[in-house]
Design goal:
- The chain contains five helices and no strands.
- It is elongated.
- By secondary structure, the protein is mostly helical.
- The chain has a single domain, classed as Rna Polymerase Sigma Factor, Chain: A.
- The longest helix has 18 residues.
Length: 98
């Protein structure tokens, strides 16, 4: 993003599109920070069933979030937020299944 662009005034969709088209590191950072709160509920749901602390599962969830930000394509059938939740859950599930 150019320095004259205020990222806080952009919609989530605009930031997602900008990141996907230009791979802008600032847009990526904004996306990651915006979607971090989605990790805790997923980590808590897995922590109820498994002996790992929530902070460990949260760290694995961050990996899923980063993968979601890096791999999402605009033509996905799901919304970006749904995609993020799925990727977080998949990453935690893969960790627990290993």
């Amino acid at each position: 993003m150019s320095q004259s662009t205020n990222s806080s005034s952009l919609s989530k969709e605009a930031i997602t599109t900008l990141f996907q088209t230009k791979r802008d590191p600032l847009a990526r950072e904004v996306l990651v920070h915006h979607y971090v709160p989605l990790i805790l509920p997923v980590a808590k749901s897995y922590a109820k069933q498994h002996p790992y602390p929530i902070d460990v599962l949260g760290q694995i969830g961050i990996v899923g979030l980063l993968k979601a930000v890096d791999q999402y394509e605009e033509n996905e059938q799901s919304s970006f937020e749904d995609y993020v939740k799925t990727m977080i859950s998949n990453e935690i599930h893969a960790f627990l299944s290993a």
